[in-house]
UniProtKB/TrEMBL annotation:
Main location (coarse class): membrane
Similarity remark: Belongs to the GTP-binding SRP family. FtsY subfamily.
Protein name: Signal recognition particle receptor FtsY
Pfam families cross-referenced by the UniProt entry: SRP54, SRP54_N
Length: 299
């Protein structure tokens, strides 16, 4: 929790500092307070739809419970935000299949490779065996980064220089089956310039995984950089429409004040937020906990 709190420092300073200003500046709950609150939420990347939703919830509650004190409204906001984010908190259960196959997608620079390293560490610490598939055959650096990570942590990396991403991942799934591996983490390409082509490539990878292992991939995780704020929502929609994603990783929350985008995602495209990245260290990837998250934003 201390780590998450530290990681969310910038979002908290932005949001909580300004909220304190709003709630502190008014002697009573009035229209001006609601308007200022709306402005703070909108500029914290909460987004139009989630902001409207939160304000509606607050107004209703204030009316019903006859709230007159700004401090009471602040508490109500915290609760409304928690209610909004709770459905996103669905931890990933990898014990349902063996191998459990996770396909990771996302644009270059989002933090995919780093997150794969952190996830491998996370599952190894739970006593599970892990195998990595270097499915970004487009960038040699991506493969090398994954191989370096695998060597350091004694994790097998199935790779091939150049070649077909789907073929690499197909081989990886078969290797995992043969060795009784628990979790397969499959990296994929994320080049932005030819996005249509990218989506077709990712769809093919998904189909080929299903050929190697029926019902797989068991999870299609979209990795998102929190720094892009409202654009994160556009990426969730684009990848979900094209590919059908089952979970999200939101990275680099530590470097941004745009953590409010989680609320926008919750309101407009509630794909489970499996993990949040709050630093570059190997342990800085944590399962998303809505209560912990809201607390870290307000306290
Ligand atoms: P990829 O292109 O999607 O594979 O992205 P990388 O995994 O190479 O990550 C891009 C950069 O973001 C690297 O410098 C990572 O160290 C950094 N990064 C990834 N996740 C986090 C995070 O949660 N916090 C911070 N501060 N940096 C991160």
């Amino acid at each position: 929790t201390a780590r998450l709190r530290a990681g969310l420092k910038r979002t908290r300073e932005q949001l909580s500092g300004r909220l304190a200003g709003v709630f502190g500046a008014h002697a009573a709950v009035d229209e001006a307070l609601y308007e200022e609150l709306e402005a703070v939420l909108l500029t914290s990347d909460v987004g139009v739809a989630a902001t409207a939703h939160l304000l509606d919830a607050l107004r209703q509650r204030a009316r019903k419970q006859k709230l007159t004190q700004p401090a009471e409204l602040k508490e109500a906001l915290q609760e409304a935000l928690l209610a909004l984010l709770c459905p996103l908190a669905q931890p990933l259960d990898v014990s349902s299949h063996r191998p459990f196959i996770i396909m990771l997608v996302g644009v270059n620079g989002a933090g995919k490779t780093t997150s794969i390293g952190k996830l491998a560490h996370y599952y190894q610490r739970q006593g599970r065996s892990v195998l990595l598939a270097a499915g970004d055959t487009f960038r040699a650096a991506a493969r090398e980064q994954l191989e370096a990570w695998g060597a350091r942590n004694h994790v097998t990396v199935v790779a091939q220089s150049g070649g077909d991403p789907a073929a690499v991942i197909f081989d990886a799934v078969n290797a995992a089956k043969a060795r009784g591996v628990d979790v397969v983490l499959a990296d994929t390409a994320g080049r932005l310039t030819t996005q249509l082509h990218l989506m077709e490539e990712l769809k093919k990878v998904k189909r080929v995984i299903a050929k190697a292992q029926p019902e797989a991939p068991h999870e299609v995780l979209l990795v998102l950089d929190a720094n892009i704020g409202q654009n994160a929502l556009a990426q969730v929609k684009a990848f979900d429409d094209a590919l059908g994603i089952t979970g999200l990783i939101l990275t680099k929350l530590d470097g941004t004040a745009k953590g409010g985008v989680v609320a926008a995602i919750a309101r407009e495209r509630p794909v489970p937020l499996r993990f949040v990245g709050v630093g570059e260290g190997i342990d800085d990837l944590r399962p998303f906990d809505a209560r912990e998250f809201v607390q870290a934003l307000f306290d």
